[in-house]
Amino acid sequence: MKTFHSYSEVLSCIGQEVAVSDWVTITQPQIQMFADATGDQQWIHTDPERAAKGPFGAPIAHGFLTLSLLPRFFESTFEIEGARMGVNYGLNRVRFMAPVPVNSRLRARMSLQAAERIEPEGLQMTWLVTVEREGGDKPVCVAESLARSFGAPA
């Protein structure tokens, strides 16, 4: 985990890969819980027998399930010491570039694209998050994520 001691330290990392997360395994129960929470019960996600005969050879995670892991990846890759609060501010661009078969292991590469101070005590950061599947030949998701932090030392 990368620890920043001030917003100045964060700003000095613009244009760099800052951290790589640990691997996270995507299980069928997680996929089912996501389907139940969102109402997206499409068989390619929730019917293992039918999905095994489908285009991917197994159930696959919802793209939005993959995207919903971003907060977990943020929490596990870096912290800003002294920050009172961090919030998701939005997304500029998201692409789902490859499927995530059940039992895949995913990790994220976190690159800081931009950061700017928000007065009086905040920082807005633009992160390029590249989610990789172990053994995959291309990313499963690439997202430009906006995050805000409040209250850390300048």
Automatic annotation (TrEMBL):
Occurrences of domain MaoC-like (ranges): 13-119
Superkingdom as given in the UniProt entry: Bacteria
CDD domains: NodN (cd03450)
Gene3D superfamilies: Hotdog Thioesterase (3.10.129.10)
One Pfam family matching this protein: MaoC_dehydratas
PANTHER family recorded: MAOC-LIKE DEHYDRATASE DOMAIN-CONTAINING PROTEIN
Protein name listed in UniProt: MaoC family dehydratase
Organism: Comamonas guangdongensis
Lineage of producing organism: Bacteria, Pseudomonadati, Pseudomonadota, Betaproteobacteria, Burkholderiales
